[in-house]
């Protein structure tokens, strides 16, 4: 007795096909060549971004001021003498104190003003609220050279020249407009029903803002704080004009002390620049978790 096996159409097709079926690439999945190219571009971009930092650290290890002209000779005489000199024989710690006072003062005051401004424009419909935001934007059009003289006159009348508070207020004029626009866009993404729930619970508008809205706006606040901090940390023109005492110089102004009329101590400048980058890196580490979210969320709704 014989048994006859009947192949199904799918099995018959597989038997007739000499090759296995080609795997279909799913959506979002890159080919091997595409992955290789994208990873290669990212590696090159990282090298380009890291090269100035590595080069600055390398030059800071050269003990002579002219080592930057012959960087190959640094390998045989690397030392930390430049760092020792900067920390022991300059006003580095005075510069650090002044920079941190001005930077954190600008961050706290600037973010507070920008947050309340952005929330008011986002939630309240008072006369001229749209024009108010455009006025803030227009203030960013004026160059520093135009603003220098009137600001100096106002600070002089208020007796705030050569004071930390005066420099903080000057920096706030730069940081607040941008941060107000940034936070206004972020507050627009927060549902208005949260404000209504706060009113139902008996909260005042400020109570709703402080207890309900601000905790939800941490990513936006982190971006505003980071921008305000960097604005005050690296600015030179205002700091060199309004701060007259050597002990009140910020880092950006203190670096100029290594440049004289006929000479520039580039090895000390490089070492100081590396030391200056440490506080900024530490501040970035504290807020980096919220930076990406804050940068992207504010642009989803105008």
Summarize the structure in short:
The chain is mainly α and 302 residues long. The chain has 13 helices and no strands.
Note down, in words, how this protein is organized.
The chain has 302 residues and is mostly helical. The protein contains 13 helices and no strands. The radius of gyration is 29 Å and the shape is globular. The model is unreliable at 298-302 (pLDDT under 50).
SSE map:
Elements: H1 9-16, H2 32-60, H3 81-89, H4 92-123, H5 129-138, H6 144-157, H7 164-188, H8 193-200, H9 205-216, H10 218-234, H11 237-242, H12 251-254, H13 266-297
Helix pairs in contact: 2-13, 3-13, 4-7, 4-10, 7-10, 8-9, 10-13
Integer average pLDDT: 82
Provide the low-confidence segments as ranges. Answer: 298-302
Tally of helical runs: 13
Largest sheet: none
**E-strand count:** 0
Radius of gyration: 29 Å
Distance between the termini: 81 Å
The dominant shape is globular
**Helix-strand sequence:** HHHHHHHHHHHHH
Helicity range = 55-70%
| Strand residue content | under 5%
Secondary structure category: mainly alpha
Search tags:
single chain, 302 residues, mainly alpha
